[in-house]
Amino acid sequence: MSRLKEIISDDQIKKYDRSNIFKDYRSWPTLASESFEKEVSVPKISKFGHIVVCGMGGSAAAGDVLKSWLKRLNVVVVKGYHLPKWVGKDDLVIATSYSGNTEETLGCYSEALEMGLPLVTISSGGLLESSSKKNGIPFNKVPHGLAPRAAFPLLFYTLVNILYSLRIVNDVEFKESKSSIGVLTSHSKKIFPEVPINENISKQVASFMFGKYPVIYGSEDISCVVERFRRLISENGKWHAMADVIPELCHNEIVAYDIPNPQLRIMLLRTKLDTQEVRIRFDILKEVLL
User: How far apart, in Å, are the Cα atoms of 93 and each of 14, 55, 108, 148, 269?
Assistant: First the structure.
């Protein structure tokens, strides 16, 4: 425990944070607000079918959250080199790459450009910016200088702003997304290194996971959160983690617990939006696994 207290102390966290990523995270509420206030560049389209968000890593996370949030829309997130074969002239393609040089995203962008599809781009620069400007593609520039994994508010709220300008996101949804900035601001004050562990949920979670392998479970409705949590443990913490969603995990992964593994630390992510069926599954899992 003394080793753990040393690692999560304010001084030690600053020592390990060589890239100063906490500075980026502290700026999230400001970056989110600024993304709403900026004018966006959008294609001229009167109707649309699917919204195809192309990106990798942190750039794809914005599309994942959009898909989980606005289920009434046909959002597809592409994390690869090629567009789906079914993409057609009524589908809106949004290529997002924080660096502007992600080869998979550039591949999808090039295919959309060649097919003459409705297309809009988001990046801080790079080849995506230069090609968009060269080909007259609506381009939306976000500030550079952040670690790509910390650029989520720039990409997500710019994406929402674009869809609102196209009247794809309605007034109620736009206000809802803006209200999330207040929640973000409130929570951000509770999780940084200077906040003591008894008041700091992030340090409490770190203490729980310390020296073990975290396993993150949540409902399908928040699969974007479950998966992003796992990936950030790997990317920020340099540590392996596993994740799965309910109810799917109840049909396969749960069988693995026939053999106890003391190296695992299981976390159940529950929300007020969980359906009755999912709440029952959570209760059973808690009884069986914890």
Answer: 40, 11, 9, 21, 32
**Can you list the positions of beta strands (E) in 171-280?**
213-219, 242-246, 264-269
Q: Which CATH class is domain 21-185?
A: alpha beta
Q: Top-level CATH class of 211-289?
A: alpha beta
Domain with CATH 3.40.50.10490 in the chain: 21-185, 211-289
Concatenated DSSP letters of 73-137: S-EEEE-SSS--TT--TTPEEEEE-SSS--HHHHHHHHHHHHHT--EEEEESSHHHHHHHHHHT-
pLDDT of 84-132, one tens digit each?
A: 999 999 999 999 999 999 999 999 999 999 999 999 999 999 999 999 9
* Contact status, residue 205 vs residue 258, Cβ threshold 8 Å: no
Q: Which of 171, 159, 92, 168 is nearest to 123 (CA)?
A: 159
Nearest to 159 by CA among 227, 229, 95: 95
Could you tell me whether strands 51-54 and 92-96 are parallel, antiparallel, or unpaired per DSSP bridges? parallel
- Please give the model's pTM, rounded to 2 decimal places: 0.91
| 263: Cβ contacts below 8 Å, ≥ 6 apart | 212, 213
Name the nearest CA neighbour of 132 among 110, 102, 163.
Answer: 110
pLDDT mean over 199-218? 93
Q: For residue 128, which of 117, 115, 141, 116 has the smallest C-alpha distance?
A: 141
Say how many CA atoms lie within 13 Å of 41 toward its Cβ. Answer: 15
Q: What angle do CA 29, 33, 36 make, to 5 degrees?
A: 145
